[in-house]
């Protein structure tokens, strides 16, 4: 077990180097004038030269990459070309916002998805089942940026209600913080929950027809025990895989939510940085996203073993 | 006499084959009413995109009405803050969605299938390299990957009044960015299916008969993974349209001003949504209805075609 985790962690480290090399090459692939993007067209040639000298943008690409990688290994993530802010400092400031968005919307996704998916399967072809299926196809078809936009507009028009705009720190103003985050993250979660509901429903329908469920029922187990210990546990395997994928995808969803709600999180930061090829920022956000996704995959794989004793880790 | 009997027999056979087809189609309609609805929506979407110049009453680029005009007889979906016809912009928006959707899915499916077949057929270091690439790409959240690719390539410019092929070419950066994710999604599915077929007795028999690698892949492996590819395409088309709209919404897809569903929901328009909700409802309704159609169609196709679900 420990050996397996160690090997996976080494694999993640190797992937991180490849990922950062790929992003770096991608961003330096097309010769683009970062100085012109950042300083604007009105800057003088001297200002361009000073800018390029300051950030070492005149050096050959391998030198730039080596310098960046060396800095990262020493804990120095460089400065943003666009704002000259220290990337590490800015990251720490913005990270809690994105974390809160992702965690809250993941909780909404997981609870709604598994709960309604399971109920829908256990009461197959009941009005409730049709309701859940209708909701899930609706949730799949309405883009999250449209739903979030509607959240800003229609309650305001009909009831004069608008979710609070702008970020407030949870620890300073918990209720103000929740007034913004709860409606927004719930709205973001609708699409992901719809996908999860469909998968949970079909996974459950698969499981309830299995022989061991009939055996459990024949043994006279209570329905509660059958559902929780026999059905849920087995249906969870594909559901967990999707939940892992969705947790990663919500990092992308957070970009949209932050953009719509005007939150200064990692998403809006990366978005502004991409526009001017501010690669120290893009690299850090992309690497953070990649590490998160890979660690989630590892956790999902490990939880398989915990859920299903038939699964063994590959050696 | 003999020939007459033969004619009669042939006649009935032809007739029964016709009615069998009819019955099969009716069966699909009865089994998959939502799928048929989805197919109708998808066809309507394609027709609207192609016929946009013929069916729009106004040019989507020029200022034809009052600023922020309410929906009226002349402008059924109202006008935006520049006095452009929202209906015309929504209809033209279908063009961007269609060309980016079809082109990126085509790119993803063709390249991805080829990569998956080659990886499964060759094995060894080729397969390892493909798998490593899959791992790297899979470690990005989808939207992040698309944004990095767009950042790497330059942003598209779109001229007015171009035909759909020119539009596809002008939007090639968006097509590549959206399509790259699908390449690897397709590779993963095709590789895993082709791997199981690769060592099936019929493939070994073909190799024993002296069939070359191209023949094995084209004639033996490809037909067996085709059902998976078709099911993948229908689902992916909806995802591609959604990805383009999200990208345009974030300001990194089609250039501002181009009539597209994502762009019309973003940018300067957002300042007027509260007083003019029709600006949201028209493009938002169009994209939701289109995605609904593709989702229904994809579900129905999967039920009908997916070999794993067949016969249930």
Word description of this protein:
The complex is a heterodimer of chains A (315) and B (312). The model of chain A has no long low-confidence stretch (mean pLDDT 83). With 315 residues, chain A is mostly helical. Chain A is built from twelve helices and no strands. The longest helix of chain A is centred in the C-terminal third of the chain and has 39 residues, at 223-261. In chain A, helix 5 runs antiparallel to helix 6. Chain A has helices at 2-29, 34-39, 45-55, 61-73, 87-122, 127-141, 144-159, 174-208, 211-218, 223-261, 266-275, 279-307. In chain B, 73% of the residues lie in helices and 0% in strands. By secondary structure, chain B is an all-alpha fold. The two termini of chain B are 46 Å apart. The chains are: A mainly alpha (315), B mainly alpha (312).
How many DSSP E strands of chain B?
0
Largest chain interface and its two residue counts? A-B, 47 and 41 residues
Radius of gyration of chain A: 24 Å
Number of helices of chain A: 12
Q: Kindly provide the radius of gyration of chain B, computed on alpha-carbon positions and rounded to a whole number of angstroms.
A: 24 Å
- Helical proportion of chain B, percent range: over 70%
């Amino acid at each position: 077990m420990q050996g397996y985790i160690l090997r996976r962690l080494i694999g993640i480290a190797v992937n991180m180097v490849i990922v950062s090399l790929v992003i770096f090459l991608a961003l330096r692939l097309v010769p683009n004038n970062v100085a012109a993007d950042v300083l604007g067209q009105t800057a003088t040639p001297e200002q361009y030269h000073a800018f390029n000298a300051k950030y070492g943008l005149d050096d050959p690409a391998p030198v730039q990459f080596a310098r960046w990688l060396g800095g990262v290994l020493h804990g120095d993530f460089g400065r943003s070309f666009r704002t000259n802010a220290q990337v590490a400092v800015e990251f720490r400031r913005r990270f809690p916002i994105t974390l809160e968005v992702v965690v809250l919307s993941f909780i909404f996704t997981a609870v709604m998805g598994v709960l309604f998916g399971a109920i829908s399967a256990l009461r197959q072809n009941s009005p409730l089942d049709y309701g859940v299926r209708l909701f899930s196809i609706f949730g799949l078809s309405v883009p999250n940026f449209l739903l979030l936009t509607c959240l800003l507009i229609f309650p305001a028009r009909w009831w004069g209600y608008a979710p609070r705009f702008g970020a407030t720190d949870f620890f300073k103003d918990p209720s103000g913080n929740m007034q913004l985050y709860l409606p927004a993250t719930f709205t973001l979660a609708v699409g992901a929950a719809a996908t999860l509901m469909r998968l949970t429903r079909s996974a459950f329908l698969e499981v309830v027809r299995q022989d061991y469920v009939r055996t459990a029922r024949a043994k006279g187990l209570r329905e509660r025990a059958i559902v929780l210990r026999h059905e849920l546990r087995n249906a969870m395997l594909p559901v967990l895989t999707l939940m892992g994928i969705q947790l990663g995808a919500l990092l992308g969803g957070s970009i949209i939510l932050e953009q719509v709600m005007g939150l200064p999180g990692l998403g809006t930061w990366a978005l502004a940085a991409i526009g001017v090829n501010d690669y120290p920022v893009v690299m850090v956000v992309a690497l953070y996203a990649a590490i998160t996704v890979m660690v989630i995959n590892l956790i999902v794989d490990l939880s398989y073993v915990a859920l299903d004793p038939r699964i063994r880790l590959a050696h | 006499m003999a020939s007459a009997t033969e004619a009669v027999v042939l006649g009935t056979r032809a007739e029964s084959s016709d009615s069998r087809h009819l019955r099969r189609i009716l069966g699909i309609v009865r089994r998959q009413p939502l799928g048929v609805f989805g197919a109708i929506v998808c066809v309507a979407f394609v027709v609207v995109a192609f016929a946009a110049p013929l069916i729009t009453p106004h040019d989507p680029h020029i200022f034809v009405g009052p600023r922020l005009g309410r929906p009226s007889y002349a402008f059924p979906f109202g006008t935006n803050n520049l006095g452009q016809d929202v209906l015309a912009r929504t209809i033209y928006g279908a063009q961007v969605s269609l060309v980016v959707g079809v082109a990126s899915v085509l790119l993803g499916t063709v390249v991805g299938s080829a990569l998956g077949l080659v990886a499964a057929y060759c094995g060894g270091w080729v397969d390892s390299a493909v798998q490593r690439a899959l791992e790297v790409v899979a470690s990005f959240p989808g939207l992040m990957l698309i944004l990095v690719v767009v950042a790497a390539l330059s942003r598209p410019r779109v001229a007015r009044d171009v035909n759909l092929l020119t539009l596809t070419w002008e939007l090639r950066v968006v097509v590549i960015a959206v399509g790259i994710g699908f390449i690897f999604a397709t590779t993963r599915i095709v590789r895993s299916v082709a791997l199981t077929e690769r060592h099936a007795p019929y493939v070994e028999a073909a190799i024993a008969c002296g069939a070359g690698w191209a023949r094995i892949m084209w004639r033996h492996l490809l037909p067996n993974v085709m059902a998976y590819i078709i099911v993948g395409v229908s689902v992916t088309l909806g995802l591609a349209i959604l990805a383009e709209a999200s990208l345009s919404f974030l300001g990194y897809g089609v250039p501002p001003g181009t009539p597209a569903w994502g762009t019309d929901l973003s940018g300067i328009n957002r300042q007027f949504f509260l007083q003019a909700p029709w600006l949201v409802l028209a493009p938002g309704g169009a994209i939701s209805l289109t995605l609904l159609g593709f989702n229904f169609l994809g579900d129905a196709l999967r039920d009908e075609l997916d070999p794993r679900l067949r016969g249930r």
